[in-house]
Amino acid sequence: LIGVSRREIPDEEFRNQAREAIAQYSRRAPDEQVLDGLLSRLQYIGNSFDDTAGYAKIGTAMDALDADAGQPLSRVYYLSTAPEYFPVITEALRENGLHHNESSEVRAVIEKPFGTDLASARKLQEVVHGVFRERQVFRIDHYLGKETVQNVMAFRFANMMFEPIWNRNFIDHIQITGAEDIGIGTRAGYYDHAGALRDLVQNHMLQLVALTCMEPPASFEANKVRDEKVKVLQAIPPPTLDEVPQMTVRARYTAGVSGGQEAPSYLDEAGVPEDSNTETFAALRLEVDNWRWAGVPIFLRTGKRLARKVTEIAVQLKPVPHLAFQSKGSVGVQPNQLILTVQPNEGVSLSLGAKIPGSRMRIRPVNMEFLYGTSFMSQSPEAYERLILDAMRGDATLFTRNDEVDAQWSIIDPILQAWHSRDGAGVPTYEAG
Ligand code: BG6
Q: How far is residue 163's CA from residue 57's CA, in Å, rounded to a whole number?
């Protein structure tokens, strides 16, 4: 593992930082011997990303590792940097001939955000494709690494009972919520240019839509899965500028109490300009215009400083066509709702109508529940553990392909444009919490 950044840090200090971080963040105490072995293989190279000539140092270090191993090792470049450096680093790798290797795999993992709108994403794509083949590129969306997000596919495609009703004939609407109680912390520099729509909807939430609505893939091979997801995204008609006000809401938090703590107004967060028009809440109504989903509204909502953290996909079924026991006081009868909770209480719950014990036929909703915690009694790996391991193994199933990014931005772009054309009117607000 070779760390590269602008600062000069001795290898030893880099290893110490890694040791401390592992102690602090690892899910379990590491095996000291394994850890020592890993840390002894860490090195650090100080090089500013735009110093193209300096990349030769990285090449030399990797060659030395190959020589040590007696064979060419696969290489993964992980670009966890400010996004403006993605093209700079990619180009510099090419100029130094580090983007391919005759006898081993070379891959690039690219963090989000992949572009800030459709045009910039395409421009970045051009640079990336000028250097790497698509199969070498691993674009991170950490939601795909979450166990519960992968469970959407397991749940849909490993059970017979849901797929027959998973369509417009039985489903009334779908609500996908990504609520957070945290604010923006110290990330104003990034967040104020992003906002909720770019930060969470363009990537994480649209991925949840794709997984919820996709057709069953022929196999779980990376491109088969991504082929199906991209079809969903491409079937979502981007709104026209005139449609945007009817199908979206944006808002920004003001001071309040959130997560049990006093929270400042967004405009008072350190680093936020006072004339900011950035939204911290976004809600959208979309449709997937295809045979399976035509006419089913899909509601997405996400925001910072809401009442609590919860990410879930709620699938609301249609009401029963006829209720025979109406006269018997079945007041509580509600359509079935299936909730896939991504976090924090990972699981699946299905609401059913059940008879209240007693001599009369009274019905009320009850829940049938599956909870990860109690069913598996084990801790799920962190999303990043899974994704970094997949990138090292070369499995791109849980990474975003170029055409997915393109389709995502095609939906988001007109919303951004329409919102910003109304910036003069100000952004509506909500109280934190
Ligand atoms: C990140 C966003 O991609 O996702 C953050 O940049 C957000 O603003 C985070 O808080 C949410 O991730 P999670 O895993 O906590 O739901």
A: 54
Q: Is 204 a catalytic residue?
A: yes
Tell me the pLDDT band of 362, cut-offs 50, 70 and 90: confident
Whole-number Å distance between alpha carbons of 397 and 210: 14
What's the CA dihedral at 134, 136, 140, 142 to 10 degrees?
Answer: 120
d(CA 427, CA 252): 7
Residues with CB under 6 A from ligand 1: 180, 199-200, 311
Q: How many angstroms is it from 281 CA to the middle of ligand 1?
A: 13
d(CA 387, CA 396): 9
- Nearest residue to 61 (alpha-carbon basis) of 82, 45, 47: 45
Phi, psi for residue 353 in degrees, rounded to 5: -85, 130
Ligand 1 center to 363 CA (angstroms): 40
The predicted-structure confidence for 262-321, as pLDDT tens digits, reads as follows 999 999 999 999 999 999 999 999 999 999 999 999 999 999 999 999 999 999 999 999
For residue 290, how far is its CA from the centre of ligand 1 (angstroms)? 30
Annotated active-site residue in 100, 204, 322, 420: 204
Cα(128)–Cα(231) distance, rounded to whole angstroms?
A: 23
CA–CA dist 149, 154 (Å, integer): 9
| Cβ(77)–Cβ(93) below 8 Å | yes
Given a contact cutoff of 8 angstroms between Cβ atoms, the answer to whether 365 and 356 are in contact is no
Q: CA gyration radius for the chain?
A: 24
Q: Where are the beta strands (DSSP E) in 180-280?
A: 248-254, 256-258, 261-263
Which residue lies with its CA nearest to atom 4 of ligand 1? Answer: 200
Three-class secondary structure of residue 353 per DSSP: strand
Q: Rounded to two decimals, what is the model's pTM?
A: 0.95
Report the atom number in ligand 1 closest to the C-alpha of 178.
16
347-355 vs 363-371, strand pairing mode:
antiparallel
Q: How far apart are CA 426 and CA 143, in angstroms?
A: 31
> What is the average pLDDT score of the chain?
95
Q: Which of 112, 114, 146, 180 has most ligand 1 atoms within 8 Å of its beta carbon, as the pocket-test mutant?
A: 180
Under 8 Å between Cβ of 391 and 135? no
138 vs 390: CA distance, rounded Å? 9
- Tell which residue, 264, 261, 288, 265, has the closest CA to residue 276: 265
Contact, 313 vs 174, CB < 8 A?
yes
What is the Å distance from ligand 1's center to 229 Cα?
21
Sheet holding 75-79, edge to edge: 75-79, 106-110, 137-139
Token reading at 429: 């607000």
